[in-house]
Amino acid sequence: MRSRSAADDRGGVAAEFAVALPAVVLVLGLCVGAVGVGSQHVRLQDAAADAARGLGRGESAGQVTARAAAAFPGVRLRSWTGGDLVCARLTAAARGPAAVAGLELAAESCAVDGGR
Asked: Any stretches that span the bilayer, and where are they (predicted)?
């Protein structure tokens, strides 16, 4: 029986690296994309809270939408009142690599309706 030597495995490491590298790059890319989407969602949630407070102060939906669009372009506003609260829901398409997947982000917030 012939024993294996280091010379027999010479190309094995390179072949394993060539097979594993695309998978590692894909996983790292997905992780970076997920962090980007998370960051966008936090900004949208902050804009929704600001929109609800603005509506609660009696600002018009147009003013609130314009301010939200400055923070997050392409945002759409839907608002409603319930009891002594005014609520705002912002939706917008994700940007960056997530836009290719057609991902839509949404955030909601409510504030005391003091504008009545």
From this structure: 12-37
